[in-house]
Amino acid sequence: MITASPSSRLSPPLRDWRELWRESITDAAELLEAAGLGGRTDLLPPDDAGFPLRVPRGFVARMRQGDPADPLLLQVLPRAVEHEAAEGYAVDAVGDMAARAGHGVLHKYDGRALLIASGSCAVNCRYCFRRHFPYAEDIAAAAQWREALAHVRADTSIRELILSGGDPLSLATHKLEELTRGLADLPHVIRLRIHTRLPVVLPERIDEAFTGWLAGLPLQKVVVLHANHANEFDAGVDAACARLRGAGATLLNQAVLLRGVNDDVAALAALGERAFAAGVLPYYLHQLDKVQGAAHFEVDDDRALWLMEALRARLPGYLVPRLVRELQGDPAKRPIADFAR
Ligand SMILES: *Cc1c(COP(=O)(O)O)cnc(C)c1O
Ligand code: SF4
């Protein structure tokens, strides 16, 4: 009998994630070409000044060829409609700009402090508040972390430290090590949560150095991923999720409800099922931040509530995310409930 040798079952070595990041597509014509839409000059944006196109090639490879309405393509391709003004859509949609640009800690909710660990991302999502936030790229700095950690040290009500951004995993692992070394003498902090889209858009980021760091932390660990569509998952993402779970992390997913991307029952149901197949539970489904340039992605609350109702009828309760909106000054993410209609 022929049995597979252990080594043949190991996955091939990962390519260096920084190299892959550098090789990202940043040109709209090149993106269209890669998505099988090379002839469609009508889809080229007039200009994308201010918020450049950026998307790792591995993510582009998951797009359907030749489909201008592909749900992954729509999330990253700059479009002319972004330049149309829309009422109620502002540059600073959640009022975090000042805090984000300052020492980098947002302590809005009880027991949880959110640290803007890095302003960079591996992907530029067109619906994101970051589009008006170019200087955010510079946020990560050890000096600011000292201030941030001093805040967490002084407030013993903080049980959970959330690393967010931008994307905290855009930092080198040794920077993350530096940061969590400062947590070692803070016994009141029992949980570390990481909000990141990198395991989805660039799963090679979850390499051995990273999982070694994560596994070694004497804390409970939660990683909240960000995928908006089932097609964002593939074998590479599954493997990255498995590595994260192997390092002791509980995996959750947050998505943004986006017109044309995931605003139908089948797409949302498939996202929940697909995420769960990768060991990830749905957490939040966010109503869009009303940020200038993103109005064309809006799904109104009535339709959002109808979608949730249909989803509840279709999926086990644990695969139904919570529909929420972030409003300035609220003590928590605000659930959008039927009784509010
Ligand atoms: C979203 C958010 C959190 C986390 O909220 P949860 O409801 O616990 O996921 C914490 N701090 C800030 C500033 C946030 O925006
Ligand atoms: S913060 Fe998240 S949603 Fe915004 S650009 Fe980065 S990865 Fe995309």
UniProtKB/TrEMBL annotation:
Protein name from the UniProt record: L-lysine 2,3-aminomutase
PROSITE patterns found in the cross-reference section: RADICAL_SAM (PS51918)
Record-stated family: Belongs to the radical SAM superfamily. KamA family.
Cofactor: [4Fe-4S] cluster; pyridoxal 5'-phosphate
GO molecular function: 4 iron, 4 sulfur cluster binding; isomerase activity; metal ion binding
Reaction equation(s) it catalyzes: L-lysine = D-beta-lysine
Source species: Luteibacter yeojuensis
Keywords attached to this entry: 4Fe-4S, Iron, Iron-sulfur, Isomerase, Metal-binding, Pyridoxal phosphate, S-adenosyl-L-methionine
Amino acids binding [4Fe-4S] cluster: C121, C125, C128
Domain Radical SAM core: 107-330
Residues carrying N6-(pyridoxal phosphate)lysine: K333
Keyword Signal: no
